[in-house]
Specification:
By secondary structure, the chain is an alpha+beta fold. Helix content is about 30%, strand content about 25%. The protein contains 5 helices and 9 strands; from the N terminus they run αααααβββββββββ. The strands form 2 sheets. Strands 4-5-1-7-8 form a 5-stranded antiparallel sheet, with helices on one face. A hairpin with a 5-residue loop joins strand 7 and strand 8. The radius of gyration is 17 Å and the shape is globular.
Length: about 230
């Protein structure tokens, strides 16, 4: 199907996850890691595929081994992504601690940081563009306003250029709609007709017992400029 294209494989795995065909998605991520052993986002994707198929121990082990990984000259670029993965590892531990063996993880790294609402975005093409979330009341959380008066924060920065995920979260979420936008310029014609897919992962009650996960894949072909691509109701 992919004809050897890494970007098509990623898009295929996103769609398989959306269909809840996690074992098939896991096979793709395993193959991508073999071909790209230093690419943290593939380990993160693999961990979430295992988590959604209830392989909680495997998911935590993958995240911890990735956080420990020495990525050499890319370490400065990867620090933000490792922070995102640390946040996710801790949420998994908080929710399933009685079922996990975390003896290999230093205690000082285990810290519960639950939030009402968390949104992450990544893209098979690798270049997300500047992401913003318009909160209830019209306040926009973005790279230029990374902490809002509602307590919303976004990890975006320059790392989107390298294909790192973007993370938005708010600890005490005001009721209303959270509108997600990207400043995006489609590269469809420059990538051998490879479709561009942004995956939005929406977490409600992140790191709490009643956590829920919703995944949405947005096709970005022929999209230009600032585009609203999704929303979350809280």
């Amino acid at each position: 199907v992919a004809n050897g294209s890494q970007q098509v494989l990623i898009a295929t795995a996103y769609i398989l996850e959306y269909w809840q065909l996690f074992e098939e998605a896991i096979k793709i991520y395993d193959q991508l890691i073999i071909e790209n052993p230093d690419k943290l986002s593939f380990y993160r994707n693999l961990a979430w595929a295992h988590y959604q198929s209830a392989n909680y121990q495997r998911a935590v082990d993958i995240l911890f081994s990735s956080i420990k990984m020495n990525t050499g000259q890319q370490e400065n670029v990867n620090l933000m992504e490792k922070a995102i993965m640390m946040n996710e590892m801790n949420a998994m531990i908080t929710m399933h601690k009685s079922r996990l063996d975390i003896s290999a993880i230093p205690g000082e790294l285990v810290q519960s940081l639950p939030v009402d609402l968390r949104i992450t975005l990544d893209c098979n093409i690798g270049n997300l563009g500047n992401v913003s979330v318009r909160e209830p009341g019209g306040i926009t959380c973005s790279y230029s306003n990374s902490v809002t008066k509602n307590g919303g924060t976004i990890q975006n920065g320059y790392n989107w250029y390298y294909g790192s995920p973007v993370e938005y979260q708010v600890k005490k979420a005001p009721a209303g709609k959270y509108r997600i936008s990207v400043n995006y310029y489609d590269r469809y014609s420059n990538n051998h007709r490879i479709p561009s897919v942004i995956r939005i992962m929406k977490f409600k009650n992140f790191g709490k017992e009643n956590q829920s996960i919703e995944i949405e894949n947005v096709m970005m072909d022929n999209q230009y400029g600032e585009v609203e691509i999704g929303e979350v109701k809280w």
